[in-house]
Amino acid sequence: MRDLMLESSKRSVGTLTVASPFDGRELDQVATAGPEHVEDALSIAYERFRDRESWLSIPKRIEILDNTAAIMGRQVDELTMLAASEGGKPYNDSKVEVIRAIDGVRLCAETLRAHSGSVVPIAKTAATAGRVAFTQKEPIGVVVAVSAFNHPLNLIVHQVGPAVASGCPVVVKPADDTPLSCLRFVEILREAGLPAAWCQVVIANDLDTAESLVTDSRVGFFSFIGSAAVGWMLRSKLAPGVRCALEHGGAAPAILADPFDAELAVTSVLKGGFYHAGQVCVSTQRVFAPTAQAEGFATELAKFASSLQVGAPEDAATEVGPLIRSKEVDRVAAWVDEAVAAGAKLLCGGKKISESCYAPTVLLNPPDDALVSTMEIFGPVVCVYAYDDIEAAVQQANTLPVAFQAAIYSRDIDVAMRIYGQLDATAVMINEHTAFRDDVMPFAGLRESGLGVGGIPYTMEDMQIDKMLVVKSPGLP
């Protein structure tokens, strides 16, 4: 049984069985924590933060991060198989995730090397003469990170890596479905030289225990990746003064605007819509195409979607794996059935392949009020909508309470730039799918899609404060 609650003298309150989302086989068991373990974890983390003599120096943090990346680099295959087995993302995509996670750890170190304060331009008036002011970076406090299942290693790196780099003690709660990659990453951090008290894992035995971890007054920063309902609820219960960042989902739109490269658009939307069986917060879900080309585009997309290999995530031939839970398969099936009954044209898929897998599905012109049109699908379903007026298409793309990343496909840069200016989104890709991301980029949702800005350099900025020093001296000019 896996147990990283090493700093607690108390025994675990139970165990959590981690199973493959594909075939249900047991992968491992992990120890679960109760309220007493949360108290221990927060007490230890807060004690580290309050004891400035115990803070890890910047050179030490860089050394730990460099060592971590090196250890991970020697274990790419093992980390890939672990992430694929527990999360269900196909092996080849999971390997990309692992390589990206390693690069993310390196990015934490590189950002830390360049991260600095600034000179404050005072002494510009008679009242402030003879003074100089500048800021330096300090850790914000204890970080509590609550993560999601869909990128079981890389999301943990996004949250824990910046905390370590920023000098913050961190307590991380991985998703119950996918705790193993998180546990392994924390083990690697410790192998790399991070004292155990600076990164602890809590796998809560129930929701009340998890909530007590988040809402404690000793928390300095709360990092959340998950559903909007849970994220906004937890934010409302944070102790006064706690900063936070919330990353939720969306229903990402893509606009096909004449003239556009149809072959490029099909290939790109195929990846953006069906990557990780659509279980991505910026997965391409709603595609708006000119009426004359809409059915042809959707038919071509369906042809390629039908040929995607669905199967076991550990198999290198698999292109689309399972959904994380069987109830999600049932939910996606119900949403698609509703849309078809209401008039959507089913071009491919539309059926359960097994209790864990749903066939890649393309729908043409589902009703605007259907669940597939108004809610985040988080499944392997792409909807194509015909439009006669591009302004109306953009307006429809903007109607939902969620807004995150979007895409435009066009050979006309002037057209693309005009649509870019009209779309509600924090990032717009031109001739690239909505799920494109580099971890140096800002990553943030608008409205119900989130709060704050992700991306490793931006997360590090959130996890530090600018502490100003003002010096008055007659020796200053």
Strand content: 15-25%
Count of distinct structural domains: 2
Structural class: alpha/beta
Integer-rounded radius of gyration: 24 Å
**CATH fold label of the largest domain:** Aldehyde Dehydrogenase, Chain A, domain 1
What does this structure look like?
- By secondary structure, the chain is an alpha/beta fold.
- The chain folds into 2 domains: 14-248 and 449-469, Aldehyde Dehydrogenase, Chain A, domain 1 (3-Layer(aba) Sandwich); 252-430, 3-Layer(aba) Sandwich (Aldehyde Dehydrogenase, Chain A, domain 2).
- It is 39% helix and 21% strand.
- It contains 15 helices and 20 strands.
- A 7-stranded mixed β-sheet has the order 12-13-14-11-10-16-17, with helices on both faces.
- Helix 2 (58-73) packs antiparallel against helix 4 (91-114).
- The longest helix has 24 residues, at 91-114.
- The N and C termini lie far apart (65 Å).
- The model has no long low-confidence stretch (mean pLDDT 96).
Tags for this entry?
477 residues; alpha/beta; Aldehyde Dehydrogenase, Chain A, domain 1; Aldehyde Dehydrogenase, Chain A, domain 2; 2 domains; 7-stranded mixed beta sheet; 6-stranded mixed beta sheet; 39% helix; 21% strand
Task: Give a concise summary.
The chain has 477 residues and is of the alpha/beta class. The protein has helices spanning 35-50, 58-73, 76-87, 91-114, 154-166, 180-191, 207-214, 228-236, 262-274, 291-306, 326-341, 371-374, 390-397, 413-422, 456-462, and strands at 14-19, 26-32, 119-120, 131-139, 142-146, 170-173, 199-201, 219-225, 243-247, 252-256, 284-290, 345-348, 361-364, 381-387, 402-403, 405-409, 427-430, 446-447, 450-451, 464-472.
